Amino acid sequence: MKNSPFIIILLLFMSCSTIHVVIDPDTHNHNPFFNARFYAEQGPEGVKELLDKNKEGSYDRDVEMYVAAGLIYAPCDVYPLLLPYLSNEDPKIRAFAILVAGFLGDKRYESIIKKHLEDKTKLEFWFDDTVADRAETSLNYIEQGGFSKEERELIEQVTKEK
């Protein structure tokens, strides 16, 4: 199995119960994968709430992975719900949406994300990424079809655990 950043984060999460990235503190549940799936399964309103609560993303891309992992279980088409975030004027929100779209692997986002390859706006994150860097990562995920089979199997396992 290829050691993608997602697999590494999942394995860290599974081996360490003290990850402090919490999707929604209102659920009093510290498993961000479970929380993301819970919201996504509520349909369009839950998806919107999940996106809104996490739209600023994270410096290490964890939040984007948790959100995308949850969105796999949405009973609705996520595409139109994520579109407004891809064109948001805030570069953090654009970068968040770009990565989420890539992790989902939906080719419908490809042309929109390609437009962001020229966006050299620096993100105020630890890794000092730009929006273009996030777009490049996203397009690589779209090219491979989003989360791999192994990643999806791990997602299935960890989204069931409270």
What does this structure look like?
With 162 residues, the protein is mainly alpha-helical. It has one domain (5-13, 29-160). It has nine helices and no strands. It has helices at 5-15, 32-40, 44-54, 62-71, 79-86, 91-104, 110-115, 131-143, 149-160. The radius of gyration is 14 Å and the shape is globular. The model is unreliable at 11-24 (pLDDT under 50).
Beta strand %:
under 5%
If you compute it from the alpha carbons, what radius of gyration comes out, rounded to the nearest whole angstrom? 14 Å
How many strand elements? Answer: 0
Q: Please, how many domains?
A: 1
Major β-sheet annotation: none
Q: What is the global morphology?
A: globular
Mean pLDDT: 83
Give the key terms.
162 residues; mainly alpha; globular
Helix/strand layout:
Blueprint lengths: L4 H11 L16 H9 L3 H11 L7 H10 L7 H8 L4 H14 L5 H6 L15 H13 L5 H12 L2
Helix pairs in contact: 1-9, 2-3, 2-4, 2-9, 3-4, 4-6, 5-6, 6-8
